[in-house]
Amino acid sequence: MYYFTGDEHFGHARILGFCDRPFDDVHEMNVELTRRHNEVVTDDDTVIHAGDFTLQRNAQQYIQKLRGKHIFVRGSHDKWMDDSYHERWEQSFGKQHVVVDHYAGFTWPKSHYNSWQLFGHSHGGLEGHPLFPFGKQWDVGVDNNNFYPVSFDQICRIMASRPNNWNLVQKKNNKNRKK
Fold first, then answer.
1. Which CATH number describes the domain made up of 2-170?
2. What are the extents of the domains in the chain?
3. What is the pTM of this model?
4. What pLDDT was estimated at residue 127?
5. What long-range pairs does 158-161 form, CB within 8 A, spacing at least 24?
């Protein structure tokens, strides 16, 4: 199973106020984020993190407590990452192409074929914005998902209710083709 998450900000005390997180202190936040992660993710699952995992240099102190195999996309605060980490992650699940970025985009790879973009950075702030979504997009950050990772199955249900991407290339009906 694949899970998607982002913007955990492990060890970042100031995120509590910035995002009005419902924790008394950073220790409680770290413990609860870890608990909720491990409640749904197994050791056999793969977790794609859409950036801003931690501002701290020692990310391993948090990673080692989390179940699953981890793939990290670089966020705006991930100073602990070297050049071997992803700026973007892409994979096809059958015919469905999924793109994970830290930032929401107006277009993304294969968006004109209704690919899905999963992102972080906005801490749930784009939902309800009059210009959003541009189609098959979802903020997988913890602030937008009750502080849980989101499974691929959950993403499938969410995307079923999202509009098609604004730049979707419509295939022409065979009856309209010139003979």
1. 3.60.21.10
2. 2-170
3. 0.92
4. 84
5. 159/116
